[in-house]
């Protein structure tokens, strides 16, 4: 029954989606909104649940080439752990330093780790992207993102 890696992974994803859905049903409804804050988490939870079932019932045997692709080098594992560390650092510093600065630094650092070399191009693209997101949330949606050390 659990002879392929896809089936093992699908069971883990299925259990995760059940736990995720349990927590998404605990989100308090807002009396002011027609579309509530729980719509997106519930939708994603059900989508994850359905996709895990599809992955489980998929009846495709793994080839030797696909099995060889699963072997991850120590360098790639180190890079993955470093990016996870950067994500945790991003979450920690977001409130204190602010969305704009931390997001530009995070995107630039992770892109540099993944092999992009043009610093100027990265700063311009990530700066514009971050400012568009910041203005969209603050001005268009009326949702404030952490400004941190910046005066606006």
| Beta-strand segment tally | 0
Give the CA-CA distance, first to last residue.
Answer: 57 Å
Order of helical and strand elements = HHHHHH
Could you estimate the helical fraction of the residues in percent? 55-70%
- What is the 3D shape? flat
Structural class by helix and strand composition = mainly alpha
> Mean of the pLDDT scores?
88
- Poorly predicted runs: none
Main pleated-sheet profile: none
What portion of residues belong to β-strands? under 5%
What is the radius of gyration?
20 Å
Number of helices: 6
Number of domains: 2
Protein name: Tripartite tricarboxylate transporter TctB family protein
Organism: Chengkuizengella marina
Keywords: Membrane, Transmembrane, Transmembrane helix
InterPro entries: DUF1468
Provide a descriptive summary of the structure in words.
With 152 residues, the protein is mainly α. The protein has 2 domains: 5-68; 74-140, no CATH class. The chain contains 6 helices and no strands. The protein has helices spanning 5-24, 39-57, 64-69, 74-97, 99-113, 119-140. Helix 1 packs antiparallel against helix 2 (39-57). The radius of gyration is 20 Å and the shape is flat. The mean pLDDT is 88.
Describe the protein's topology.
Elements: H1 5-24, H2 39-57, H3 64-69, H4 74-97, H5 99-113, H6 119-140
Helix pairs in contact: 1-2, 4-5, 5-6
Brief sketch in words of this structure:
With 152 residues, the chain is mostly helical. 70% of the residues lie in helices and 0% in strands. The termini are far apart.
Pick out its properties:
single chain, 152 residues, mainly alpha, 2 domains, 6 helices, flat, transmembrane, Tripartite tricarboxylate transporter TctB family protein, transmembrane helix, membrane
């Amino acid at each position: 029954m659990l002879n392929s890696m896809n089936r093992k992974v699908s069971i883990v994803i299925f259990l995760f989606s059940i736990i995720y859905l349990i927590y998404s049903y605990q989100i308090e409804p807002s009396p002011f909104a027609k579309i509530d804050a729980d719509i997106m988490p519930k939708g994603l939870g059900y989508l994850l649940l359905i996709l895990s079932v599809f992955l489980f019932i998929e009846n495709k045997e793994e080839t030797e080439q696909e099995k060889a692709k699963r072997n991850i080098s120590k360098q790639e594992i180190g890079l993955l752990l470093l990016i996870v560390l950067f994500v945790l650092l991003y979450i920690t510093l977001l409130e204190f330093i602010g969305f704009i600065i931390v997001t530009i630094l995070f995107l630039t650092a992770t892109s540099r780790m993944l092999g992009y070399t043009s610093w100027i191009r990265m700063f311009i693209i990530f700066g514009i992207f971050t400012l568009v997101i910041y203005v969209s949330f603050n001005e268009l949606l009326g949702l404030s993102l952490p400004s941190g050390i910046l005066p606006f």
